[in-house]
Amino acid sequence: MTSSPKVAIITGASQGLGAAIVQAYLDKGYRVVANSRSIKPSDNPNVITVAGDVVDRETARQVVSAAVTEFGRVDTLINNAGIFIMKPFTAHTDEDYAAITGTNLTGFFHMTQLAVAEMEKNKSGHVVNITTSLVEHPLESVPSVLASLTKGGIAAATKSLAIEYAKRGIRVNAVSPGIINTPMHTPEKHEYLAKLHPMGQMGKASDIVDAVMYLEFAPYVTGEILNVDGGRSAGH
Length: 236
Prior knowledge:
Layout: E1 7-11, H1 16-27, E2 31-36, E3 47-51, H2 57-71, E4 76-79, H3 94-122, E5 125-130, H4 145-164, E6 170-177, H5 190-194, H6 205-216, E7 225-228
Parallel strand pairs: 1-2, 1-4, 2-3, 4-5, 5-6, 6-7
Helix pairs in contact: 1-6, 2-3, 3-4
């Protein structure tokens, strides 16, 4: 088992941060099981794609099963899938609430529970959760209660899981990004979004990739919430 390439599961993997993280793990010699609702098949023999919504536990079963059946193991899980809907708190609908809590919380629960169960068999593994700097540093101009409710829960769960599994060979960390320049943000908003950070610029996907890679290869780090936010966590 130790001689075969390591295997990373990455959710929200079809574009933006997820696609960049997939490529980073491939560059490090990992095999990857990539998931999103709209992901397409890959012709790379080191990539298995599984289309499906993380809200559905069956999707998690298919993803983890693909990793074990095709590649023989699960070493890393990157919980990147997430939804953010910017609305005033009282404007959110039941549908908004269901969508955000479903992807951000229920999806995290299903995928992490099944992946960690496989990691336990080998007494080794790593989970990285992607949260948001808005959890600890909300902005008046960016209403984010549901993001904070869900991603804040993930941040708390990161520390709890890190302690629960610290002596079982499984590390659990999180990356807390500021606003990252991805297809989610249209170009006309870039100048405004950049000004929300003390450094006066949006982050790049590569900034988050670098943070994830640091955590992946930092064996003495667990329970860490790594801020990658252009200084927002330091103040305004």
